[in-house]
Specification:
The C terminus is likely disordered. α1 crosses α3. Strands 1-2 form a two-stranded antiparallel sheet. The protein has one domain. The chain is built from seven helices and two strands; from the N terminus they run βαααβαααα. Helices cover 72% and strands 3% of the residues. The chain has 152 residues and is mainly alpha-helical. The longest helix has 22 residues.
Length: 152
């Protein structure tokens, strides 16, 4: 299991918050679409390669983390990786909406992604991570001991 410093995803969420807020401010301009395309690419990178392999993770590791105390604990990288996939889905759908000439839908989708980023950056609540954990809870096979418990 890959373990990461939990402050890394919060740092990434803070940068993502700034990027997505800028997209909403500039929408529906070509600049907004370009910036959204870049953010969507970063979401895809985090989902496919893992959050610890993104450019923002590198910045956190090399610039930010050396200035901080060691983390109190580490966290599993799978939930934030899933959250990046959710961000990618919203970003890609928003890109399609902007390109298709439906800027209101694009802005709403960016707004949802922005809300999730703000929750993580400000409150440390990763919405995509919580969805991941719920999915795992309902799809994880039952423990063998529970399945084959004696019925006497």
């Amino acid at each position: 299991m890959n373990q990461i410093d939990p402050r890394g995803p919060k740092f990434t969420a803070a940068v993502t918050t700034v990027v997505l807020a800028t997209v909403l401010f500039l929408a529906p301009s070509a600049y907004a679409v370009g910036l959204l395309a870049l953010q969507t690419l970063l979401f895809a990178w985090g989902a496919l390669r893992g959050v610890q392999h993104t450019p923002l993770a590198w910045v956190f590791r090399t610039v930010v983390r050396p200035r901080l105390a060691p983390p109190a604990d580490w966290e599993d990288a799978a939930p934030p990786r899933f959250a990046q996939g959710v961000g990618f889905a919203f970003g890609a759908a928003a890109l399609v909406a902007f390109v298709a000439g439906v800027p209101l839908l694009g802005s709403v989708l960016v707004g949802f992604a922005l809300a999730a980023a703000v929750l993580n950056a400000v409150f440390g609540f990763c919405l995509g991570c919580e969805v991941y954990l719920l999915i795992r809870r309902f799809t994880k096979p039952a423990d063998a001991a529970q399945v084959h418990a004696p019925t006497s």
